[in-house]
Amino acid sequence: MLYVIIPVFNRWRYTAECLVSLRAQTNQEFRTVVVDDGSTDETAAELARGYPEVEVVTGDGNLFWTAGVNLGIRRALALGATRVLTLNNDVVAAPTFVAEMLAAADQNPTAVLGALEFDAATGEVIYGGERLDFRTNTRRDLLHELPAGLRTGLHPVTYLPGRGLLIPKAVIDKVGLFDEKRLPHYLADFDYTSVARRAGFPVLCNYAAQLSTYPEESGQTLTRKHRSVKGYYQHLFGIRGGGNLVNFTHFAIKNCPAIYLPYFLLNGYARRLVGYFMH
C-alpha cells in the first residue's frame, strides 16, 4: 500500500488545494498522512472537519521538514506501508499523478521516483531532474537537454526533491530514514536520494507523473525578496537557510567522492556566500 506523507505548518490554503487534488486522483489506491507540526491557523480544525480520510500526526512546532517527514513515514510503516510518497503541501497533483507513479513503481520496484513539475501560476514546465558532476560542481538540467516532444519516460538523475518523491520500503530498510540530525530542513531530500543511488537503487524522474508547484513560495525565494544582513545570516546559517554552509558540508562529505571533495567544498562555499545577492 502506498502512503502519501505531507508535512505542514500553517498555510491551510495550500494544504486544502493539495488534498483536493489527491481526492481527484484516477487511482485511489493510497492513504494520506498529514504531519501537522503545531499549526496555529485553521489547519487542525479543517482537517478534522472536512478530511476524515486523512491520518493526522501532530508535532510541537519544532520538527521542520525532515523530522516531520520521518514522523509521517514511521506512522505509515506502522500502518503497513510498502511504499511512501513524500509530498509538500504547496503542490497540486495532476489527476493521473498517483496512477503514473504506481505504474512506474510496478515496473521498477526498487526505484526512487520523482515527478515532472510545472509552475502553478504559468503552466510552464520548471523541473525535470538534474545530474550533478561532483568533479566540477556543475549541474545539467535535463529540461535544457530534452526537446518538449521528448519529455516522456523515466530519466536517471543524481538526486530528487522531496516535494513529490516515491520511496519503496526496500530503500528505507537499507538506507533508513532522512537525516534529520544533520539536515533538519534543506538538502535532506537531495542527500537521501543521492545516498539511495549510491546504495544501488535507481533514482529516476518520471515525466509521466506531473505536479504543479508554487516556486515563489519557497523559503529561499521569500528570503531573497527582502535582502538584509539578518537575511544573509539566515541564508548561510539558519535552519531554513537555502545556502546553509553546515548543511552543505554534511551533504558534500556524505555524497562527494573524496578525490573531488576539496574543490567541491570550496566552490560550493563561494557560491553560497555570493548567491544570496544574485538574481
Defining traits:
279 residues; alpha/beta; Spore Coat Polysaccharide Biosynthesis Protein SpsA, Chain A; 2 domains; 5-stranded mixed β-sheet; 11 helices; 12 strands; globular; Family 2 glycosyl transferase; transferase; Glyco_trans_2-like
Can you walk me through this structure?
The protein is of the alpha/beta class. The protein folds into two domains: 2-217, Spore Coat Polysaccharide Biosynthesis Protein SpsA, Chain A (Alpha-Beta Complex); 221-275, no CATH class. It is built from eleven helices and twelve strands. It has helices at 12-23, 43-50, 64-78, 97-107, 142-145, 169-175, 188-198, 219-225, 229-237, 245-255, 261-275, and strands at residues 2-8, 30-36, 54-58, 83-87, 91-93, 112-119, 125-127, 130-133, 138-141, 154-156, 164-168, 203-213. Strand 6 (112-119) and strand 7 form a beta hairpin. The longest helix has 15 residues, at 64-78. The model has no long low-confidence stretch (mean pLDDT 92).
Please report the distance between the alpha carbons of the first and last residues: 43 Å
Within CATH, the superfamily of the largest domain carries the name Spore Coat Polysaccharide Biosynthesis Protein SpsA, Chain A
Q: Specify the number of helices.
A: 11
Q: Largest sheet, order of strands side by side? A: 3-2-1-4-11
Uncertain stretches of 5 or more adjacent residues: none
> On the 0-100 scale, what is the average pLDDT?
92
At the third CATH level, what is the topology name of the largest domain? Spore Coat Polysaccharide Biosynthesis Protein SpsA, Chain A
What is the chain-wise order of helices and strands? EHEHEHEEHEEEEHEEHHEHHHH
Structural class: alpha/beta
Outline: globular
CATH C-level class of the largest domain is Alpha Beta
The profile of the biggest β sheet is: 5 strands, mixed
Structural Rg = 18 Å
Assign the CATH architecture of the largest domain: Alpha-Beta Complex
Helical content band: 25-40%
Strand fraction: 15-25%
Number of domains: 2
Strand segment tally: 12
